[in-house]
Structure formats: C-alpha cells, structure tokens
Amino acid sequence: MFTQLADFVTFDVLSLTAGSRLGESVHFFIEDVTKIFTLLIVIIYAIGFFRAMLSPERVRKIVGGRSRFISYPLAVGLGAVTPFCSCSSVPLFIGFLEAGIPLGVTMAFLIASPMINEVAVVILAAAVGWKVALLYVAAGLVVGIVGGLLIEVLKLERWVEDYVWKIRMGETVLQKVNTTLKDRLAYAQAQVKEIVGRIWVYVLIGIGVGAVLHGYVPQSFFVEYASADNLFAVPMAVIMGVPLYSNATGVIPIVEALMAKGVPLGTVLALMMSVAAISLPEMIILRKVLKVPLIATFTAILFFSFVAVGYLFNALLT
Hints:
Layout: H1 2-13, H2 21-51, H3 56-63, H4 68-81, H5 89-98, H6 103-115, H7 118-128, H8 130-153, H9 162-166, H10 181-216, H11 219-225, H12 233-241, H13 252-260, H14 265-277, H15 280-286, H16 292-317
Helix pairs in contact: 1-2, 2-7, 2-10, 4-6, 4-8, 5-6, 6-8, 6-14, 7-8, 7-13, 8-16, 10-13, 12-14, 12-16, 13-14, 14-16
Transmembrane segments: 36-54, 74-97, 103-126, 133-151, 199-217, 229-246, 258-280, 292-313
InterPro entries: DUF318, UPF0718_permease
Subcellular location: Cell membrane
C-alpha cells in the first residue's frame, strides 16, 4: 500500500524518473514517511491501551525481592516492553534502589528500556524483516543482562549520588495505574500525542538521511568502508551513534537504507543500539543520580558490548 502510494506520488504526480537518484530518494522518503507514521500511531495507541495497566510502580514491585537468576531476565524483559521516556529515568532509578533492587538489576532495566521497545521492533520488522528485528531484540536482551551483571560484579554502588540512598520508600512520584476503559483509551490517545510529538522531528531526519543514502551514496562506498572486512567499521558505527540523538524508531530508516546498500547486519545493529542506549541527553539525565565514574563505566560497558555484538553478527552472517 505504501509502496503504491509512493509510486503514484513520485512517478505520476511529480513525474520523476524511476531509477534516477532524485526519484529513488523521493520515493524512499514518501514511502517511509507514510509507512512509519501510520505504524507509529496505530501501534502506540494499541500498546498504550494495554500499558495503562503497567505503571513504573508496578514494574518496581514485580522486579523487587527476586533472586538474581530471575531478577535480571525479568528486568530486561520488562525494560523491553515498558519503554518509559527519558524523563522517567531518574524516578525509576531511585524507585528501584529504594525498593532494595540491586544496582546491577536496575541498570539492566535502564539499558533495555530505551534500546528495545515494541513500537521500534514492529517498525523495524516492517522495514527490514522479522529476522533482523528478532536478532536485534535478542542482542539487546543479552547486552542488558551482561551490562547489569558487570556493574554488579564491579560493585559500583559508591558512585551513585549520596542523596539517592537517603530517600525513603515511597517518596518518588510515579504515575498511577489506569483501570477503567475510559481512562485507558484516554491514556492511549495521550501516549500517541506525547510520543509522536516528541520524536516526529527525529523520525523525519532519519528518513531524510536514509533517503539521501538510498538515492545518492553509491553502494561501492559502503563496500569499501563499511564491509565486514573492515575491522574499524563496527567501532566507528558505535562512536557515530553516540551524538546522533534519536531513539530506536528514528534510526530505523537509516538502518533500512544501509542494509539495502549492503552494510553488514552486525555493523547496522551496533549503530542502532548506540543511538538508542548511549545518547548524550540520556547520560545528562542520569548524571542527576550517577557520579561521573559510574556513567563512564556504564558507557564503556555498552560501547564494548555493542562492538562485540557487531563483530559476532558480522562473523556469523557474512
């Protein structure tokens, strides 16, 4: 449906030539804008309706009091299906710690939450297929668990801001659960307005970048500089992702264009994870509760984890 609409607008209405650089770029842009924003609205509304029953407070209670073998998989699993916005990072972090949840489990949740969410997974699957989407989810879950375990093993609690440990149970203000049908419908509508309103610029920028890559950058460029044979391609992809403030959804059009040009899957996934999980704004927000050494350690763990994921998938799938 979206391809046919893009065909009509690009080649019939705008009279651009099929196969030309401009024609291919415009076609990519129109198809992805209509497809991604339609999926965004539908999926966010549907998921928001069901997520209205799952507040951060309930997530905290579900994870708390569990053994390590259960708490880590549970934390990253809940992080994957509860992508609370960056503004929730601080109250979630404090709430987890004051409930007695270990720092490693808390960080595992905070790693998985921005990196994996059901909206991005569905859109990623629509763009490049379910195989890639499921591989991304699996890699993200593993990174969340490994990152949290490393932070626990290193015993980095001393680098949490002192005031966090002094906060009493229940002092953090978290959203209430919506139970009635009217409340859940209103919450779903508000989620669409809030999330789309917050990310639409980044999605358009991502689609624009993807369109330029698709139409104007020759495949030979990526074969030379971003192939699996280039050992520096994966680390550079992770480094490039840090300042590219977006979320997992906004970077999908770039992922789509890069994969179409032959960039290896591991390199693309490493870029996507970097953009979603170690963006500068997220680190600035976490600075309110974490001291600089812990933020640096957290970033280093994720950096090397993403590089390892990139190398692994390139080796297995090339």
